[in-house]
Amino acid sequence: MKSRRKEHLAVLLAACVLVGYIAFLLFANYRAQVELRRSTLEHLKQEMEKRAAAIGYFSSERLNDLKGIATGKELAFYFSNKALGMSLRYGLSSNLNDIAGSFDHIIEQKRLGNDRIYTRIDFIGSGFEPHVSRATPRAPIVERPELEELLTTSNSGVGIVPRPETNSSILKFFIPYEFKEAKAGEIVAWVDLETVYRHLIQVTHSPSKRVFHLGYSGFQLPLPAGIETPVDISKIPDPSAIPYGEVHQFQATDMHGGTIDVLALRVPVPNTPFFVLAVVPYSELFLQDALWRLFVLPGALAFFVLAGMWLLLRIKDQNLILHIRLDESTKGQEEVALKNLQLRKEIIEREEAEKALRSSEKQYRKLYEGMRDGFVSADCTGVITECNSAFREMLGYPGEEIYGLPYDSLTPPAWQPIEADIIAGQVRVRGYSDLYEKEFQRKDRTTFPAELRTYLLTDEREKATGTWTILRDISDRKQSEQELRRAKDAAEKGNQAKSEFLANMSHELRTPLHHIMGFLELLQYGSGGELNEVQKTFVDDSLQSSRHLLDLINDILDISKVEAGKAELNLAKVNLRALLEDSMKMISENAVKNRLTLSTEIMDIPDIIFADARKLKQIIYNLLSNAAKFTPNGGSICLGSRLSAEGFRIDPSDEETIGLPSSPEFRMSDPRKGGSRSALDPGDGGAPQAGVDFIEILVRDGGIGLGANDLERIFKPFEQVESSMARRYQGTGLGLALTRQFVGLHGGRIWAESEGEGKGSTFHVLLPLLTTE
User: Span 568-769: which CATH code?
Assistant: First the structure.
């Protein structure tokens, strides 16, 4: 009995030991599974964080690329030249080509493996116009609303453009471009999402069902073609419901319509709105061996089976851990190799950029020193920091002696406040000055005139750091201008002397001519006895020639007086309507003789105006007598007059304006507004005011007409129309010249119009309407 009890106790003890041992094995296995799960999830999280960091670094590099474009000289030169007023034809097209070249260089050089990173780079203007766009054959088509959306932001960043029609998306990187503290446009780069997935996200070299998604603003981007996924992406929960860094387990639908247990983990991408979402089947991460197998073996066999299972699980766990660590090591080595390759490429690119920069600087220095115009720059305190050899030669400073001198010390004191106003009012306000002139003082204290323009120097933050100036010595030009002024003064003095001589000589010639004409008239009237027919013919011809000579002398005398400044206006009240009618009567006898039709078109004009009656009468008579002379028999002549308030330019292509008398006691009336006002504006040196009235007098004939080249020439002294019909009529060629002088004395203007030879002419006289207060 005792032995059986001992046996029972032994069996019970063995059973208890076996049960305890099995429980211990189960508990140990449970602890191992928990530790394995924690380690596996930690590894998965680290793997995702590495991918997220790679994408964040990739995004930062792309933004740095765009910042490099924005700070490059190509865009700065383009907007500087545009601000200077250059057109696409002169200068801007070359700048745009330089910008396009820099875009092409970045598209070709920036790669992930053998794939180009960028498929397209755009520079969009502030008016939504694409200034420059460079693209590869895989470049996306971008609509205008997408470009306008980019211009609404003031910050740089990264975004996404979904393409529902192709079930794809495109990454966009953009930064604003500012010129002189104002937004001038946007630089946008487009990256193919497939390239990012292939090199930075879905990187694996072993069979795996885990899939990494790139998400944006609460939704996943469609996976590129060629990436297999065991789960229907459209059926997974909203990624925004999965907290960052926490594992979310759910049941999803696989690609065959079945149900599958899935784990999801979401990790943010630094400095971007993206996140990386890992979707992994539960079976890939955790073993699903059933625990009931641990209890089927009876007795001692259970002990060996459990021991064997425990040992097998331990070995399997160790192998799995070693496999995970091996995968981590292999992937870490691949990532390090990829980073090293990228770093080598960046080093090569930087070396090439530095080489190009040195070459560009060498060319700039060669151009800078080869300029014949002077160049000088000064800092904010006015101290000279840089200049070229041409400037040093102009100022007489050899070598580098001029560096460190105050810029004002090279300017005479009289010019310093003038230039200071230009710097403060133009350069510091808009960044550059208008072209202006000043004097510079050489080292030997002599001065020379220069023509120059000054620009503002700024740093990367658009803060003023100084000024730079381009100048040209204009001593030769100033000397030429002085010689021209002296020659002009001498010519004017000679012309005045000529006019005074003609005036005096005409007066001396007219006195004996009156005696000759008087004696000829006595002979013509028979005071010296009867003359035969031949004698009468001789006397008539002599008297007619004398009268013609007297008219010529009178015209020369009048023109000479005007040119010599001796002609004066005797302003008085003139009945304009009566003067016009009397002028028509003066040519009525000649009109009847030649069967000419006379008419008038005198509109609503004032009866009394202030003018020089004799000169006004001679103006009208000269125009009417010319019309009667050059109108063939049976023709017509019309004399018209009207008020005119059309302004002061007679012809839109003619920039000449009408000058008015400078006598302050005369006023221009404005019958529409009532009262009167001064004909002069004291502020502009005598320019007429808009809205004042004029008297327009016109003479229209049906005569020989005028060619286009004769409309201005006929008003010059001794000029006549070159035509066979005009040569049949006697004339001095001074009538219209004298008429223009008289019109000018009144502050008016005269001009002619004609449709061509044989189609008649119209002469217009425009005089200011003068009245007293």
Answer: 3.30.565.10
CB 704 within 8 A of CB 731: no
Contact 59, 53 (CB under 8 A): no
394 vs 459: CA distance, rounded Å: 29
Residues listed for the chain: 773
Residue 200 is classified by DSSP as I
Residue 214 CA, chain-centre distance (Å), reads 42
- Rounded to two decimals, the pTM is 0.38
Report pLDDT digits (tens) over 182-223.
888 888 888 887 888 878 776 554 445 677 778 776 555 566
pLDDT in tens, 508-542: 776 777 778 787 877 877 777 788 888 878 887 78
| Backbone φ and ψ of 534, nearest 5° | -65, -45
Is residue 428 classed as helix, strand or coil in its secondary structure?
helix
Spatial CA neighbour of 707 closest among 670, 655, 759: 759
Amino acid at 1: M
Alpha-carbon gap, residue 542 to 559, rounded angstroms: 26
Question: For the packed helices 735-745 and 533-563, what is the interaxial angle rounded to 10 degrees?
Answer: 30
**Candidates 1.20.81, 1.20.1640, 1.10.287, 1.25.40; CATH matching 474-567:** 1.10.287
Which residue from 57, 43, 167, 183 is spatially nearest to 123, judged by alpha carbons?
Answer: 183
Distance CA 391, CA 246 (A): 71
C-alpha span between 43 and 36 (Å, rounded):
10
Q: Which residue has the tokens 């003068």?
A: 770
d(CA 598, CA 586): 12
Question: Does CATH place domain 371-472 in 3.30.530.20?
Answer: no
